[in-house]
Specification:
60% helix; 2 strands; flat; mainly alpha; single chain
């Protein structure tokens, strides 16, 4: 079927929107994990008691799923010139 000019659906699915299978899969996974919270908590407690190193490694692997990643604010690999530490120091000096 060739492209027809003026066709309403020529752009396809909007960027970032989930397809039906992805949406259903995520809902199923969320439902499964909701029932596993107590087990995961207990397993983490056991790991923490057995090996603090393994416990910290597991937490480090889980953090990216629950905490936003830090983003470097630069422009073409150059810093933008805003140094919050210097600005804070400057404000402290102005108050004296």
């Amino acid at each position: 079927m060739p492209f027809e000019e003026g066709h309403d659906k020529a752009t396809g699915r909007p960027k970032g929107s989930e397809n039906k299978v992805t949406k259903e899969s995520r809902a199923l996974f969320t439902q499964i994990m909701a029932g596993e919270v107590e087990h995961v908590s207990g397993a983490l407690k056991e790991v923490r008691e057995d090996s603090k190193k393994d416990y910290l490694n597991i937490l480090a692997k889980l953090f990216p799923f629950f905490m936003p990643k830090m983003v470097d604010v630069t422009s073409e690999s150059r810093k933008l010139g805003l140094d919050l530490a210097k600005e804070q120091y400057k404000d402290d000096e102005d108050e004296k």
